[in-house]
Amino acid sequence: MSRVTLSSCPPVTYLENTLKAKIVLLPGDGIGPEVVNEAVRVLDVIAQQGGHTFEYETHLLGGCSIDAHGSSLTDKTLKACQQSNAVLLGAVGGPRWDDPKAKDRPERGLLALRKGLQVFANLRPVKVHPALIDASPLKPEKLRGVDIIVVRELTGGLYFGAKKRESFGGHERAIDTLEYQDYEVQRVVELAFRLAATRRKKVTSVDKANVLESSRLWRQIATCLGEQHNDFTLEHMLVDTAAMRLVTNPAAFDVLVTENMFGDILTDEASVLAGSMGMLPSASLGNGGPGLYEPIHGSAPDIAGKGSANPIGTILSAALLLRYSLKLEPEAQAIEKAVDAVITDGCRTADLGGSLKTTQMTDEIIKRIS
Ligand code: NAD
Fold it and tell me: 12-122+275-370 sits in which CATH class?
């Protein structure tokens, strides 16, 4: 099997040790603009401290784009994203665009953006901060040492296969297709091994190979890549077992890689471990193009406009942007350490049982970036 190599993101301009990069901001709907604004404040501090130049270009995506342009993702926005070094997204959606019969919906814009950027892998790191162990519904002893990266295949599988709806004999029939080509599996499992190489060198490949043909292909390719990485531990796990182990023994996972729909479900399950949806970042990466970075939460219409959203998921997404798209590892770590410090020091927004407003939480993080 020929190996897929993942190149880095598109060229950014370096001058001595400083860097110039173009970042497209897609604040989106609901709390999206509030949290993206906070992440930009943090990026500005990083730029100022390191002498870097981040040029921002803001575009509409999702419901706000439907309202303004009649489309959840315009060609202009997609082109701007494709020509950037990285894209930082808030969230899309909300009750006012929820009509299931509508021609366009906010999520459609997001799916089209992922496809247009060819970001085939969604990474969600899940770590449990010791000070937040009590915020999780799991028992503290289950949570100690949890440090997982879930890698979800993002542009294939059940969500992108052919769909059909037909009526016959007085009945309705609906068909969804779960389809994978070998290279689609290979590139995402290869990425999981690359990530594991910087961690505990353990990859758990999750499938349903006892039932699904696509999973048998997935397992065959994962096995083949495992043979090429013989200093790694590769384990295969059925998705139902993985769902159970994520709550019974989450600390045993290092990098978990899986199909699009399985990953959609398992990533939400894994997010519960960290205590709040507002805490977790994500990165969607492809084969060298701009990465897409966004918190895992949605647009939270119930708290939009109140200034109470937790900005940490988006700020940590900005840290992933620095790490994966701009190769600024020390800067990414500076943000992650500052977030760790604010949690240790007891700073809490409402979702964590505290009273800090969105901007106050960011102020505390910025104070601790050194
Ligand atoms: P949600 O993540 O928006 O909210 C779930 C709960 O978590 C709410 O009570 C909300 O207040 C809280 N929450 C979420 N983020 C928070 C934050 N940063 N700080 C504090 N509390 C936070 O999920 P939902 O309510 O199911 O969906 C709302 C809308 O968001 C829907 O239209 C949905 O389609 C959309 N959505 C978008 C994305 C995305 O843009 N990637 C992801 C999920 C949901």
Answer: alpha beta
